[in-house]
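Hi team,

As requested, here is the filled-out complex form for the guanosine-5'-triphosphate run. I kept the field names the same as last time so the parser does not choke. Let me know if anything looks off before we queue the next batch.

— J.
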Amino acid sequence: MIINSATFIKSSARVDQCPAPDKPEFAFIGRSNVGKSSLINMLTSRRSLAKTSVNPGKTQTINHFLINDAWYLVDLPGYGYAKVSQKMREQWNTLISYYVRKRENLVSLFVLIDSRHEPIASDLEFMENLGLNQVPFARVFTKTDKISSNELEKNIAAHNNAMMKNWDSLPPTFRTSSAKNSGRDELLDYIYESMMLYNQD
Ligand code: GTP
Ligand code: MG
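And here is what came back:
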């Protein structure tokens, strides 16, 4: 799929402030600093469409980007950032849980996982919850430029093993590097196919 246009539409602090749910959308979620905003920039080939930072906790709201005047990419705040208060954490949980369950035009969520790390409980629990709520999702292993391909496959195998304890099958899985622009075509193809299926219903 070719991206002809990518426009920032708005930042929303609450789900009811988001743009009308009249176009299919795909959202990026995962721990703070995993590379959600960078991945949106990589997919759209815009260097600073979504704001990124070396410091975790950069994205704090729900950010909608309109692509090809036809569908949305959504940048969400990250979880698991140690420096936030308990109250902020609860606010995040409420916001995200509401967003993923109630956003009627959400076609698929991308759960981003840093490919350098072992499986962590918060990611596994988050995906478990998506399953319970029947929210379609795919996994994206990010920052693959930072490790060797052997390490990458070893880490993904560990993630798969951890997931298979509670799941019968694995979700669609992608490997990306925003630094090296890799995994872009695969993700865009998946988005295109998912959108075709969604528009048929
Ligand atoms: P929050 O908004 O805080 O939740 O973070 P985020 O998930 O949006 O992460 P962001 O895209 O801001 O990236 C965090 C840091 O990781 C930045 O310094 C990015 O340059 C870096 N980064 C993101 N993706 C990659 C990647 O694929 N490779 C490398 N080497 N660095 C990356
Ligand atoms: Mg961000």
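Two things worth flagging: The first helix runs from residue 36 to 44. Residues 29 and 111 are 5 Å apart (CA to CA).

Thanks,
J.
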